[in-house]
Amino acid sequence: MTTKRAATMKDVAREAGVALGTVSKVINGIPVSEPNRIKVEKAIEALHYEVNTYARGLKTQRSNLVALIIPNTHNPFFASFADHIGAALYKRGLKLLLCCADGIPEKEIDHLNMAMNNKVDGVIALTYSDIGKYITNNLPIVVFDRFFENQVIPRVASDNFAGGCLAIEKLLEFGCKHPVYIRFHSVFPGESDKRRDGYLHACAKYGLEPNYLDMVDCDEKIDHMKRFLDRHKNPDGTLRFDGVFAHTDYHGYLFMSLLQREGYRVPEDVQIIGFDGICKFGNIEEELFVSSICQPLEPLAEKCVEILLAQETQTVPSLTLLPVTYRYGGTTKES
Amino acid sequence: MTTKRAATMKDVAREAGVALGTVSKVINGIPVSEPNRIKVEKAIEALHYEVNTYARGLKTQRSNLVALIIPNTHNPFFASFADHIGAALYKRGLKLLLCCADGIPEKEIDHLNMAMNNKVDGVIALTYSDIGKYITNNLPIVVFDRFFENQVIPRVASDNFAGGCLAIEKLLEFGCKHPVYIRFHSVFPGESDKRRDGYLHACAKYGLEPNYLDMVDCDEKIDHMKRFLDRHKNPDGTLRFDGVFAHTDYHGYLFMSLLQREGYRVPEDVQIIGFDGICKFGNIEEELFVSSICQPLEPLAEKCVEILLAQETQTVPSLTLLPVTYRYGGTTKES
Predict the structure, then answer these.
(1) Mean pLDDT confidence for A240-253
(2) Which of B9, B29, B83 sits opposite A110 (nearest CB)?
(3) Residue A160: how many other CB atoms lie within 10 Å
(4) Which of B3, B73, B131, B254 is the most buried (most CB within 10 A)?
(5) Rounded Cα distance, A332 and A166, in Å
(6) In whole angstroms, how far apart are CA B177 and each of B104, B180, B197, B266?
């Protein structure tokens, strides 16, 4: 069985006998010579080349620009999210205005106004401020992950509650008897707080005594982890827990390093499951830092864009949750 | 000694008795009520608040948009570079149009035309195609890292040649007698090829026999590394090299993992120095994957933007190289 390959811009250039750049210009509405324009249009027709259909449902006077407000792209989670958002926009003929605001409300608002000044068609935000009140003229907006007081603005997130449950279920499945939970959290409420709810739910469901380190994020994470570890040592040096659900892969990695420095083996003595699904070296290296509950970054980005462009906003739910999955990353005992 | 803190947008809002968003709007030229505009302007004057000075030297009809064309932001090196470019633009009142082209020439050209259609004021590109010929109307452009046939376009890169030398010098300083070089390279020529030249120069300078694995990048990197390793084993299992200069941190990490799987200790049996200076978890975690020759990402980004905005293009050198530095990352024996 053979499937006919869809024509590419290159095919159009070959068919029309013009340079690739000429085809791109015609498609993007940049003037070229009249004979070339005609050649390209004929080739597009002959090959049934599908030009990116420009997004509908936005303002009529469009810039085809969508602003993404995120803290930074140093963090690999945000960096991959930005990449997937860009790809989801690109295939709809839209461009990405990247606004890294370092989580500083002042900078977020400034970026937002700069973006509005450039007449962006919409905003996707992973933000720490209630930016809804700064947005005027019915600009479409979608918020990722963060909790937002303004319920009118649609939100997209992973199913963090189910992820918290799944982490504990996996640790039990791999033989843990006494899992603990470790998290350092933002002062801003967000969907990720539900990981804790999921953890507590799983404890109740499986008859486990909740046991956790739960603190506001700070620079002394290692010190707090060390004290938590010391509090759970038996006189013979063995530990009173055998599994860790870490709030993020980063927390899981820090705790793993601490355990190894203290002479404990991972996963033999303690199994660890993190959250996020961050890969070493980004997508180049498929290896996770720790076994993890993975957020579906590509579908999350696609969903944000889809909702942003939705024509019938009445049918958009205020909160859309996408399922998470467990993935092995070397810190669990697979059965 | 006390230094007077520079006034922030928040201070202006407090002084003017208006909301932060109002200040931002005035600064960004978005209409507000006349009394509010006057209040804000008075407060700006009273506090000597420094409004971002908008970049000069660009077209008079400005969009204040600069396009960055890079392969992706999954790769932490590109991701951090994009972040620093955004920061360098932001402080000049410019915005970042992020174009991830996956290194596909067709997509790069398409992004470029989309960007020109949005009347960007300039382009910074880490590209694999000779996009110079697609750029019309004297659009300012700066190229990072890649080699470019068109010498008119200014390029910015790290001093890769010096970095290659430095890696060998550091390995020798830490006691290596037989360093080898491992690289998998792109089919496209680029500044990073000079790491190899630097390695060969150091070999000549220090009387070392060049010994390397040098191949076009492929999916079978581990297999090739394994064969290279096997070729360098003595009958008793010891190795005929004791140091590795890896073309990138990623290559260094892969080789370290292979060595450890084969029962060799890093850095006791083999010391490794990579190139790039990529940190685990981006900037959250300051820990490197391997000891590394670090590229100065923030200065590189700053330099790209500075050259892009330079008014007197005659004085811009065709190639600007910034110095690299060695940093310990656990895979070398510090003396």
Answers:
(1) 96
(2) B9
(3) 24
(4) B73
(5) 14
(6) 42, 10, 20, 16
ipTM of the complex: 0.80
What is the C-alpha to C-alpha distance for residues B165 and B26, in angstroms, rounded to an integer?
52
The pair of structure tokens assigned to A71 is 């803290």
Which pair of tokens denotes residue B202?
Answer: 């150091």
Q: Are strands A325-327 and A291-294 parallel, antiparallel or unpaired?
A: antiparallel
Q: Are B281 and A278 in contact (CB under 8 A)?
A: yes
Give yes or no for A289 touching B (CB within 8 A).
Answer: yes
Residue with tokens 């990073």: B192
Two tokens at A236?
Answer: 């013979």
How does strand B243-246 pair with strand B179-185?
Answer: parallel
Distance CA A76, CA B60 (A): 37
**With left for phi above 0 and alpha for psi between -120 and 50, is residue A197 left, alpha or beta?**
alpha
Q: Considering only the beta carbons, identify the residue of A65, A79, A97 that sits closest to B76.
A: A79
Which residues lie across from A181 on neighbouring strands? A212, A245
What tokens were used for B309? 């905005």
What distance in Å separates residue B335's CA from the closest CA in chain A?
22
The residue among A29 and A20 whose pLDDT is bigger is A20
Instruction: Report the first-to-last Cα separation within chain B, whole angstroms.
Output: 39
Q: Is B226 buried (19+), middle (13-18) or exposed (0-12) by CB count in 10 A?
A: middle
C-alpha distance from residue B86 to each of B66, B67, B113 (Å): 9, 10, 21
> What's chain A's length in residues?
335
Helix (H, G, I), strand (E, B) or coil at A158: strand
Distance (Å, rounded) from C-alpha A246 to C-alpha B266? 28
Segment A69-95 mean pLDDT: 94
pTM, entire model: 0.82
* Distance between CA atoms of residues A65 and A95, nearest Å: 5
As a whole number of angstroms, the distance between CA A46 and CA A48 comes to: 6
Nearest-CA distance from A112 to chain B in Å?
Answer: 9
Q: What is the pLDDT of residues A279-315, one digit of tens each?
A: 998 866 679 999 999 999 999 999 999 999 986 666 7
What are residue A185's DSSP bridge partners?
A216
Query: Token pair of A233, please?
Result: 């040592």
- Chain A residues in contact with B87 (beta carbon < 8 A): 100
**Chain A residues close to B52, C-beta within 8 Å:** none
* B61-120 residues touching A, CB cutoff 8 A: 63-65, 72-76, 79-80, 82-83, 86-87, 90, 93, 95-100, 105-106, 109-118
Residue B184 has pLDDT above 90, yes or no: yes
- Determine contact, residues B80/B283, Cβ cutoff 8 Å: yes
